Amino acid sequence: MLKKLDRYIIKKFLSTFFFSITLILMIFIVFDIKDKLPTFSTNDIPFREIVFDYYLMYIPYYGNMFSPLFIFISVIFFTSKMAHQSEFIAILCSGTSFKRILRPYIIAAGFLSLSSLVFNHFVLPKAFKVKIGFEDKWINKNYNNDEHNMHKKIGTNRVLYIESYDNKINTGYKMSLEDVVNNKQTYFLSADNMKWDSLSSEWILTNVKERRIIAQDRLDTLTNTKPIYKQINSYLPSKKVKLAFSPIDMWRDESKIETKTYFELREYIIREKLKGSNRIELYEVEQYKRSSFPFATFILTIIGVCVSSRKVRGGVGLQIALGLFLSCIYIMLMYIFTTIATTGFTSPFLGVWTPNIIFSFVALYLYKTAQK
């Protein structure tokens, strides 16, 4: 049952947060419109697509991204204002403990954290898919992969080679497929091009040359060893094959992972591990970030209350400055450890969660030393 004190603090918390995040998003949108106005006008982009496919997706994406920071700033702002007006002195003098004062903060932070968790794992990937589709269509001019001579491991023993790939028509050129078992080639296929068939989810190959290498239980009289190998060559003008490889694997990394919901991303990581992908760390960092950011809301809320609930000389400005300083340190640590995790120097889980672990100790220390 929420008491009057709980409702009072929760109302201040949420109203300050939503006001500040709305204000900053409006500023971002104004600057983004100014930056992209020439693109919008010269390409004759429909107004409906700009509003619904871009900016309507822009708001929840960036709003959720900056929510931990602005939750922290909001807590610092309205709590320091309450402390400056001696409200905390009156609450503490009434016999209310500091632990009890924290309860409405934790309730509000829990609501925002849970909302952010659901958004990160299930809502934002769908919004990002629409937003990135708009950007690729109108701003990036139908993004096309410009890599050449690509080698991709698409199975435990299978390697795919593509000389070049066109994202616009989902077609690869000068491709080859090779199976290697125990360092011995057992199958080789080459084709002039490979085109994606979206109906059957298969690749259509043209001018296909195949070579199968079969081990026979016969003695090689020259080396006096077994087995002896036999080659079977064939040629086909066209062939359909199903591979553990699809057009999505040629998208940009952010398109591959940020457009996937929790379960889709988890399955994608499992498939990429089976392929032996060298981008696993990047995908796992994205997976863990979606949970670590919402959890940061609790930590930053406790730090914010402990820092700003004491009435100090210098007023609200000094406490807001301290809060901004701590938030800058958190953001710096977040980017440093995320970068370390993506390079493979530490596990993605540890890299992503280290800033939260460090700031948990900071929050514990500030809580122990806060006024009681």
Describe this structure in words.
The protein has 372 residues and is an alpha+beta fold. It has two domains: 4-140 and 281-369, no CATH class; 148-250, no CATH class. Helices cover 60% and strands 19% of the residues. The protein contains ten helices and six strands. It has helices at residues 4-42, 47-65, 67-84, 87-93, 98-139, 253-258, 262-275, 280-308, 315-342, 348-369, and strands spanning 148-153, 158-166, 171-181, 184-197, 202-216, 228-241. The protein has a six-stranded antiparallel β-sheet with strand order 1-2-3-4-5-6, with no helix packed on it. Helix 3 (67-84) packs antiparallel against helix 9, helix 7 (262-275) crosses helix 8 (280-308) and helix 9 (315-342) runs antiparallel to helix 10. The longest helix has 42 residues, at 98-139.
Helix-strand pattern, N to C? HHHHHEEEEEEHHHHH
Largest sheet: 6 strands, antiparallel
Spatial order of strands in the largest sheet: 1-2-3-4-5-6
Total count of helical runs of at least 4 residues:
10
Whole-number mean pLDDT: 87
Count of structural domains: 2
Query: Count of DSSP E strands?
Result: 6
- Using only C-alpha atoms, the radius of gyration works out to 28 Å
Q: Give the class from helix and strand content and strand pairing.
A: alpha+beta
Low-confidence stretches: none
What characteristic shape results from the CA principal axes? elongated
